[in-house]
Amino acid sequence: MWKDFRDFITKGNLVQLAVAFVMGAAFGIVVGSFVNDLVMPIIGKLIGNVDFANLYVNLSGTTYASAAAARQAGAAAIYYGAFINTLINFVVVALAVFFVVKAYQRSQRPKAGAAPTTKVCPYCKSAIAIAATRCPHCTSQFS
């Protein structure tokens, strides 16, 4: 049983899946930083100096200086700014995965080959030149 388990664990597909999972997690962290540290500040500046991380609707009735303070206090609130950040993060990841998959599919398409230079004799099935009117193997004449 242990041998079967070891064989299962060391199979190429499972190892590749584990590597893909780790790379995906790291990619998610990079994209999260890209969105939160680069994209959202630019969008916030264009909209009018809005910090999306601080956008929330306080349901508790107590006033808090920021969304982080409300979270720390455990206040009932709707943190829609964090949701907007997460939504943009998802869209960026989805676009990146889409472009990677499209590039992979494009690389897997068969390349258009050169025009054939031979044809098959209908009588003896030998390969002959395209321009041949008589088979050099069986001497059959054809057009």
Secondary-structure blueprint of this entry?
Layout: H1 2-9, H2 12-47, E1 57-58, H3 67-73, E2 77-78, H4 80-108, E3 118-120, E4 127-129
Antiparallel strand pairs: 1-2, 3-4
Helix pairs in contact: 2-4
Q: Kindly, what is the distance between the CA atoms of the first and last residues, rounded to a whole number of angstroms?
A: 67 Å
Strand order of the largest sheet: 1-2
> What is the CATH domain class of the largest domain?
Mainly Alpha
For the biggest sheet, the summary is: 2 strands, antiparallel
Helix content: 55-70%
What characteristic shape results from the CA principal axes?
elongated
Percentage of residues in strands: 5-15%
Overall mean pLDDT: 84
Number of strands: 4
Keywords summarizing the entry:
143 residues, two-stranded antiparallel sheet, 2 domains, 4 helices, mainly alpha, Non-ribosomal Peptide Synthetase Peptidyl Carrier Protein, Chain A
Could you explain how this protein is built, in words?
The chain is mainly alpha-helical and 143 residues long. It folds into two domains: 2-109, Large-conductance mechanosensitive channel, MscL, domain 1 (Non-ribosomal Peptide Synthetase Peptidyl Carrier Protein, Chain A, Orthogonal Bundle); 114-143, no CATH class. Helix content is 56%, strand content 7%. The protein has helices at residues 2-9, 12-47, 67-73, 80-108; strands at 57-58, 77-78, 118-120, 127-129. The strands form two sheets. It has a two-stranded antiparallel sheet. The chain has a two-stranded antiparallel ribbon with strand order 3-4. Strand 3 (118-120) and strand 4 form a beta hairpin. It is elongated and about 100 Å long. It starts with a helix and ends in a 14-residue tail after the last strand. The model has no long low-confidence stretch (mean pLDDT 84).
